[in-house]
Every structure is written in structure tokens, then in C-alpha cells.
Amino acid sequence: MPPTFTRSLATLALAAGLLGAAGCAAVDSLPAPGPRRFTVALWGDMPYVRPGTPDTETSRIGPLIDDINAAKVDFTIFDGDIKSGSSLCDDAAYTQAAGFFRRFDAPMVYVPGDNEWTDCHRKNNGGYDPVERLAHLRKTLHASPSSFGRRPMPLERQGAPGGEYAENMRWSYGGVMFLGLNVPGSNNNLVKPGECLDSKSARTRKDCDAANAEYVARDLANIAFLRESFAKARAQRAPGVMVVIQADPGFDLPETESVDERGQPGFEGYDFFLDALAKETAGFDGQVVLVHGDTHFFKIDKPLYSPARMLKNFTRVQTFGSPNLHWVRVHVDPASRAVFTFEPMIVSGP
Q1: pLDDT at 29
Q2: How far apart are CA 44 and CA 105, in angstroms?
């Protein structure tokens, strides 16, 4: 491992603490609280178009949007992957996603996934520079101070709309804090030694060095915004916090007492973030939910840390994904013990 990269990782935890204390400037005010009880729709990892197969999933997005609109939810969150990992990262992919997001009646919040930027170096994705695609994503899908939807709501973004870290956002609704962070699959854009050059990839060593620098800086920003958001939630005496990312950070590895699931290869890029999330959850009196997609199996569990040492107020929800184009309805009742309850919504059709 190059010395400079080792030093960057070694200083990450300390720097994250300093950034977290400093905080980040808000670019918008939090929206006024909504009703005491409300509902939220969660979806992601769709539509996928696989080369050589009929384009059936794009046509199925319409019925899913209609189903969510008919449910009269208060707002919707998409947890990443607007396209498959083997389709082009051309500008049309982002334009299509924006078109879908604008069709929602209620506010629609978009959290980025790996397929639309981290993995774009793959030749079957067009061999794009992931850092450049991330900048394009910010300029096109995070260029407004508000959400998508026919009735958009204001968002508090970490960076100026369209700029660096604009995709990190939070909002308070019904007294509950919601937070979206750019934590994508593919090891959070961390490229380990020996994994850079590949016949299926168009990236160079310089590209990989740039990716690792991007990872370190963004991970610092994510942790700072996470800590600042929990501080706000505590100050507001929020009964719950929902954190939405795209990546499955390794919760689904074999559940054994003798194996540390978080120490497995290929998931190192999530270590600092998960450590910060666990510490903030342990210091928070309310309920915390981590929502993510990435591995496409709907599930609800408490994966931290073990049956003998469960983090009681932490719940993980993994949403549906291609080829299962369904969504999850969240019932939020700040006065209840659980605060959040979840209902899988199966959309009829093929």
C-alpha cells in the first residue's frame, strides 16, 4: 500500500472528529414540521437495463410511481442505483432518472448509488471517469435547494446546490430527523492495492489514486455531517433519526460468533462511517434506522453487534431492488415506542 494512502487512512478518524466539531454551513432552512403521524416511501436499485435483454423494467417504473402516489405518502426516498452496473453512464441515464423523480406527487429525495458514478470506469459502462461522473451527478440531480416531486420540499444540503457534497442532505419532518448520505457500494469508492488495473476497466493508476483521495475526503465529510445531524436531533429532542445510504456495508456476511463481519475484505471503505454511526446511535435516546439498498433483498433486522450485544435502538432496513420493483412504506409515529414501522408494498404486474 502506498505510504501516502496509508497516512491518509491513519489520519482519517482524527480528522473526522475535528470536522465533526467544526460542522458544515447550512445552505437552507429546515422545513416546518409535518403532521405528528406520517408515512414515507422507500425504493431504489431500479430500473435496470441489461444488455441483450428486453427493456422491461423501465416500463414497470410507471406503475410503481402510480402505486406510491396513490398511497398518499408524505414524501419518498430513493436509496441509489438509477441504472444497472453494466449499462452506460451517459448523460441520458441521469436525465431519465430526473424524469422519473419529477413524476411523484409528494417530495422525492434522491440518494446516489455506485452504479451511477463509482462503477462508471467499467468498459461496459462506457469507461467514464467516476470523479467526473460524480460532479455531473451533483450538477444535474442535486442542483436545487429542494427535493424532486410536484410538491418539492426544501433540503438542508452540506454543500451548495450542484457543488461538492450537495448530495448530502437532511430535513426534519414531524419532529423526526432524516439524513441522506453519499455512501455507495463498491467499497465506498475505496480502491485497494492490486485492485486498480483490470481488463474490464478503463481506469489508470492515476484514476485510482484520484478515487482514493475522493474516498478519504468524502468519508470525512459524511462523518462530519452525520455527527452534526445527530447533534441537531438531540438538541431538538427528536424521537428518531433515519439515515439513508446506498451501500450494504457488509451486514449480510455469515452470522457467526467467531467471525467479525465488519472485518472482512472488500468492506474496509465503510469502517470509519459505521464506527461513527454506532457511536452516535449509542449516544442517542431515540430510535435510529439505517436504510440502504445495494443487495436487493428486502429485510429488517438489528445487525449490530451480536445477539449477546445488541445495539437495541438500531434497526437496518434493506429495500427491494431489481428485478423486484416494489417499495417499502414506513409508518412514523413519534409517540410510539418503535417510532418507525415498516410495510412491504408489492406492486402488481410481471
Answers
A1: 42
A2: 17
